[in-house]
TrEMBL record:
Keywords on record: Lyase
Domain Scytalone dehydratase-like per the UniProt entry, residue ranges: 7-50
Pfam families attached to this UniProt entry: Scytalone_dh (PF02982)
UniProt cross-references to InterPro entries, sorted A to Z: NTF2-like_dom_sf, Scytalone_dh
Protein name per UniProt: Scytalone dehydratase-like domain-containing protein
GO molecular function: lyase activity
UniProt KW 4Fe-4S keyword: no
Length: 51
């Protein structure tokens, strides 16, 4: 698949967020991992992730 330089095939706009989780282990707070989220609000996002 060839496309001319500078040509945009699909556009999308989204907002993301991250929540960081911690757990208390033996009285000490430890990082337990992130919870990531994304909300696509407009655009051809279905086509962006096609195989």
């Amino acid at each position: 698949f060839e496309r001319p330089p500078g040509q945009v095939l699909y556009k999308g706009h989204a907002h993301g967020n991250a929540t960081l989780h911690y757990r208390q282990v033996d009285g000490e707070w430890k990082f337990a991992g992130p919870e990531l989220g994304i909300r696509w609000s407009e655009g051809d996002y279905g086509k962006i992730f096609e195989q």
